[in-house]
């Protein structure tokens, strides 16, 4: 799980152009949107592309994304649960 | 006293008709142009509904009065067909008889050809047909239309995304009011492209079914293609010609909220509508109908609906979105929908907001969802809101001699 | 009457644009993480405007609606346009990116400046083959003379594969100037001189 989380953080930093941010700066359980990393609606869409590109997982409905993207941990959980289905 | 700007001709082509008459027939029989993709060679065929013009580019060539489509992008062909109809309807025999110009709008220009070129070029940079990129620039579309009409005196291109052709109309009206030109052909054109289809799809604002503007269950828009042009003249130049209406108000507001979304309170929309009213000298009670931007996205309809309620309080006029007929024609929608507004005025008719079922829970108002005839319509407010926070509103009125 | 201020943005040898513009972001200690999401054209416009606004203090003097921004360039948003097409033409590598698509309109560059500074006045971007000084000057003069704006930012922000160029100036009404404010009279000639000087 740890390897997945580290990998995920790296990919997010790259995909969302979070140049000032290092993986150690991101708290696993902190909210990604609103406070925390302060991501916006376009970032949410980029995360959907990231899931498909890097983990082969498709999200059809952006509303479903809200739960999945609430934190790094929830994203990692989603990936782990669905990756090899 | 400032010059009055009147409309003496209109022409359009869209998914619901290749000219004014066919368009009218579709509007009053609730016949939408939205369906499967046929000509665009995209992976989204059979997946995303769009409103295509029901003519191939080869067929458009004939209607445009050309002999070959070389050097003409699909946007240019659509624009030429629509602009020629407008000029014909205005009874113009000699285009250069008065100081005449053209203000055309487009968001994709010749992209439909360029993206074909680019795909080949990316794989091998000695490949790709150069004739596919010479029509790329937005300005080329305008030049082609101007050439086919014989306009030499003045031409310019406006490209402000979805508010483009509303801004063309605004600019053309101002050129006349400031006595720079007597007559301006104004409007816009956009063809479908993989560029916009994939772009909007990645923003997840496309509906996989037919769009449902202002409906609580809406999930997005359908893209469309088309062109809509009007002939604007000063009252003096128009003389005794049939006048379809008058441009009495217009405004453009800069929202500074987000690159592609509108603020949920609808600040930009509110400012644009309010300023347009001020320019017209009319009050909120004078507006009989609003042809809303109403794309069917969660964001736009909420933003626009809230702005309307803020501006009109409890007296929001009858309104409808015609985008469930034509799809969202991007740079052409301002022109096409201005024409719909003048048809509403001429025939005292409100075209229905198709596919409407449930009122939005955030609003207290619903659109007109059935064709409504014999409605007294003197003043129409037409909205076009674009990416980049560029929000435009037009006030289009019945012409009355003073 | 009006006066312009002008900022020079130097280009270093042998540094590519992303590094160059990031160095400027850091040098001027700008704290605005959204900078990193912008495309190259917007980064160029944004950093140039940050420098200019810091120097002139326009935002402190004028209300949101009183500042207008009118820019020109020749390549529109070609850099992002190409990246967008590249992201979907290869069937085997089909990943269109929403954050690239939103930059496929050049006027978004002005949008970014407006969002950052809450500027809600006139904004327009014109595409010309080269910087049309007379057109820009007349347009801005008109905005100021008719009271549609009290201060304006004008100039040329160009980015493409062939290179980049940024020239920005600010213009204010004479009656709004502060005593001892360094000024240059606003005219086509003066702006052209300033532009060609660099």
According to DSSP, the number of beta strands of chain A is 0
> What is the C-alpha radius of gyration of chain C, as a whole number of Å?
17 Å
Major sheet description of chain C: 5 strands, mixed
Helix content of chain C: 40-55%
Poorly predicted regions of chain C: none
Describe this structure in words.
- The complex is a heterotrimer of chains A (85), B (402) and C (198).
- Chain A is mostly helical.
- Chain A contains 4 helices and no strands.
- In chain A, α1 packs across α4.
- The two termini of chain A are 17 Å apart.
- Chain B is of the alpha/beta class and 402 residues long.
- Chain B has 2 domains: 5-238, Thiolase/Chalcone synthase (Peroxisomal Thiolase, Chain A, domain 1); 245-397, Thiolase/Chalcone synthase (Peroxisomal Thiolase, Chain A, domain 1), CATH 3.40.47.10.
- Helices cover 33% and strands 18% of the residues of chain B.
- Chain B has 12 helices and 12 strands.
- Chain B has helices at 20-28, 57-63, 74-89, 111-123, 138-149, 164-177, 194-202, 235-238, 267-280, 298-312, 323-326, 333-347; strands at residues 5-14, 34-35, 50-51, 100-105, 154-158, 183-190, 226-234, 245-254, 289-291, 318-320, 379-386, 390-397.
- In chain B, the strands form 2 sheets. Chain B has a 10-stranded mixed β-sheet with strand order 5-4-6-7-1-8-12-11-9-10, with helices on both faces. In chain B, strands 2-3 form a two-stranded antiparallel sheet.
- The longest helix of chain B is centred in the N-terminal third of the chain and has 16 residues, at 74-89.
- The relative contact order of chain B is 0.18.
- By secondary structure, chain C is α/β, with parallel strands linked by helices.
- Chain C has one domain (17-197): Peroxisomal Thiolase, Chain A, domain 1.
- Chain C has helices at 17-27, 40-56, 58-61, 78-89, 98-101, 108-117, 133-145, 188-197, and strands at 2-7, 67-73, 123-127, 151-160, 163-173.
- Chain C has a 5-stranded mixed β-sheet, with helices on both faces.
- In chain C, β4 and β5 (163-173) form a beta hairpin.
- The longest helix of chain C is centred in the first third of the chain and has 17 residues, at 40-56.
- Chain C is globular.
- Classes of the chains: A mainly alpha (85), B alpha/beta (402), C alpha/beta (198).
């Amino acid at each position: 799980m740890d390897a997945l989380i580290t990998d995920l953080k790296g990919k997010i930093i790259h995909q969302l152009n979070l140049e000032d941010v290092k993986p150690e700066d991101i708290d696993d359980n902190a909210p990604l949107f609103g406070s925390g990393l302060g991501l916006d609606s376009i970032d949410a869409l980029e995360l959907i592309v990231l899931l498909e590109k890097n983990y082969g997982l498709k999200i059809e409905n952006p509303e479903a994304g809200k739960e999945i993207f609430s934190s790094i941990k929830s994203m990692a959980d989603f990936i782990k649960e669905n990756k090899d289905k | 006293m400032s010059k009055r700007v009147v409309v003496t001709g209109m022409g359009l082509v869209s998914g619901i008709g290749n000219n004014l008459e066919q368009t009218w027939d579709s509007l009053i029989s609730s016949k939408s142009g939205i369906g499967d993709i046929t000509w665009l060679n995209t992976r989204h065929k059979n997946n995303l509904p769009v409103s295509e013009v029901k003519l191939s580019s080869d067929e458009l060539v004939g209607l445009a009065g050309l002999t070959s489509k070389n050097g003409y992008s699909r946007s240019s062909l659509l624009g030429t067909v629509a602009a020629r109809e407008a000029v014909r309807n205005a009874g113009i025999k000699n285009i250069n008889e008065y100081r005449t110009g053209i203000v055309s709008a487009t968001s994709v220009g010749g992209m439909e050809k360029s993206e074909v070129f680019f795909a080949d070029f990316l794989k091998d940079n000695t490949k790709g047909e150069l004739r596919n990129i010479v029509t790329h620039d937005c300005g080329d579309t305008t030049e082609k239309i101007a050439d086919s009409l014989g306009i030499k005196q003045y031409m310019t291109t406006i490209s402000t995304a979805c508010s483009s052709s509303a801004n063309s109309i605004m600019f053309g009206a101002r050129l006349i009011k400031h006595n720079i030109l007597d007559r301006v052909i104004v409007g816009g054109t956009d063809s479908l492209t993989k560029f916009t289809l994939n772009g909007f799809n990645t923003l997840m604002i496309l509906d996989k079914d037919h769009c449902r503007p202002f409906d609580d269950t809406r999930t997005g828009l359908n893209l469309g293609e088309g062109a809509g042009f009007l002939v604007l003249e000063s009252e003096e130049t128009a003389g005794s010609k049939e006048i379809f209406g008058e441009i009495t108000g217009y405004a453009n507001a800069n929202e500074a909220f987000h690159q592609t979304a509108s603020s949920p309170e609808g600040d930009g929309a509110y400012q644009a509508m309010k300023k347009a009213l001020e320019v017209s000298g009319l009050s909120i009670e004078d507006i009989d109908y609003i042809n809303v931007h109403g794309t069917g996205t969660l964001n736009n309809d909420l933003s626009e609906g809230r702005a309307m309620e803020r501006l009109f309080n409890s007296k929001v006029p009858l309104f409808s979105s015609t985008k469930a007929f034509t799809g969202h024609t991007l740079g052409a929608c301002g022109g096409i929908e201005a024409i719909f507004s003048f048809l509403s005025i001429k025939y005292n008719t409100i075209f229905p907001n198709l596919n409407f079922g449930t009122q939005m829970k955030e609003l207290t108002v619903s659109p007109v969802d059935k064709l409504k005839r014999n409605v007294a319509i003197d003043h129409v407010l037409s909205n076009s809101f674009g990416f980049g926070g560029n929000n435009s509103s037009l006030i289009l009125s019945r012409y009355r001699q003073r | 009457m009006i006066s312009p201020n002008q900022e020079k943005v130097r280009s270093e040898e042998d540094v590519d644009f992303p590094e160059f513009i990031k160095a400027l972001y850091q040098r001027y200690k700008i704290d605005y993480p959204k900078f990193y999401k912008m495309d190259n054209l917007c980064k160029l416009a944004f950093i140039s405007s940050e420098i200019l606004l810091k120097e002139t203090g326009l935002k402190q003097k004028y209300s949101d609606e009183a500042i207008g921004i009118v820019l020109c360039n020749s390549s529109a948003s070609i850099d992002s346009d190409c990246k967008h097409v590249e992201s979907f033409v290869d069937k085997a590598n089909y990943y269109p990116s929403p954050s690239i698509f939103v930059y496929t309109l050049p006027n978004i560059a002005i949008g970014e400046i407006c969002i950052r500074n809450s500027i809600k006045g006139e904004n327009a971007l014109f595409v010309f083959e080269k910087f049309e000084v007379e057109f820009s000057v007349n347009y801005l003069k008109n905005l100021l003379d008719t009271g549609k704006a009290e201060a304006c930012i004008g100039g040329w922000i160009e980015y493409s594969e062939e290179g980049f160029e940024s020239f920005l100036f600010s213009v204010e009404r004479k009656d709004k100037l502060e005593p001892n404010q360094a000024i240059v009279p606003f005219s086509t000639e003066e702006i052209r001189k300033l532009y060609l000087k660099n």
